[in-house]
Every structure is written in structure tokens, then in C-alpha cells.
Amino acid sequence: MIDKIDDIEIYTVELLLKMKKEHEKDVLHGNFSTYITLYDAVIHDYSLLSTLFEYVDINKLYSSSLDLPFKFDHELFDLIEMHELYEQGIGSFILKDRYLNKLFATLLNSTKQLLQRVEQYYYIEYILEEDGGPIKQFKCTPFKGTTEKERDWVVYWQGWYQESVDLFISAMQKRYPEIFIQPVFKG
């Protein structure tokens, strides 16, 4: 992560010196765990997050929800699917950074709640591309009898989802900026 040639602009000499100084300060003050070192926790969290976001485009989490409740981009609910596949194949997805783990759990929960509300009040159909290309968006049509109040619930959950994305992404950018520039798997 630090010694990759692609990360030379992220991990400047100044940043590395700052990290070294902070590490030496932590060691001097005894700010390290007896169970796991800070470095091990960082590597653990980075590994989990970079693996997940190799398959979920983190840069589209927020924008994929902007057109709700009328339509949404196909990436909107990728997080749910990839998280489930990760846990089935590899095991529990628990970050050592408790704050980041809480933010991720909130994001995942808000995504599930939003999906539940959209499916509860709307008929979802894919929008075909004129050129016959892959499906990129889904159209939402309210079920017959869906009330204005029920549609407002979707807007409420959309706002909670967007706030959760914003908080999680802000925390991730502070801790793991390189994840935002890693390539997303296209398969």
C-alpha cells in the first residue's frame, strides 16, 4: 500500500515523516494495543475494504441514489450483494476501527432499508439502452394505491442513505485515500 509506485503521490515524503513522528509519539506514550498493533489493524481494515471496493464502485454509492424515487442506477444496491458474497465466501466483515465499522454497519443498514422501502412501494423495471448495451438504470413506478406519505418514506430513507454514504466516505478518505483510486473489477 505505501510502497506501491502508484501511491507515490499519496505517500509523499512529508506524509511519511508525519506518520513516523506520530508513530514514535504513540510508542513513547504507550498508545498501542497489547492484543494487536495499530499497524495490524490498519492492514486488516485496508484489506477488507479494498477487497470489497474492488467490486463495488465506492465513487458511485452516493450518485446512484440521486434520481430516487423515480429511478436509480444499477450500482445502488451492489454493496448489499457484495457484502453478502464476502461473508459467504470469506467470513465476517468486521473492521478493527470501531468508528469506521459503525459507519459501515450504518451504511449497510441504510442501504437495506432503502431497498426494502423501494421494493415495498414501487414496481421496479430496468431501462433498456437504445444501443442494446448493458442495463444502467432502473425505473420506479408507484404501486397502485401507494399514498403520498408512503412515497415520502422512500425520500426519507434516501436521505438517510445519502447521509450514511457521506459519513462513511469522509472517514474512508481520511484513513484510506488509495482505495478511491483503485480500479474496479469489470467482469
How do you describe this structure in short?
With 187 residues, the chain is mainly α.
Please, could you describe this protein's structure?
By secondary structure, this protein is mainly alpha-helical. α4 (98-121) packs antiparallel against α5 (148-175). The protein contains five helices and three strands. Strands 1-3-2 form a three-stranded antiparallel β-sheet. The two termini are 24 Å apart.
- What strand order characterises the main sheet? 1-3-2
Number of helices: 5
Poorly predicted runs: none
Query: What share of the residues does DSSP label as strand, in percent?
Result: 5-15%
Any idea what the shape is?
elongated
Topology at a glance:
Blueprint: H1 13-28, H2 38-52, E1 71-73, H3 78-89, H4 98-121, E2 122-127, E3 137-142, H5 148-175
Antiparallel strand pairs: 1-3, 2-3
Helix pairs in contact: 4-5
Key terms:
single chain, 187 residues, mainly alpha, three-stranded antiparallel β-sheet, 5 helices
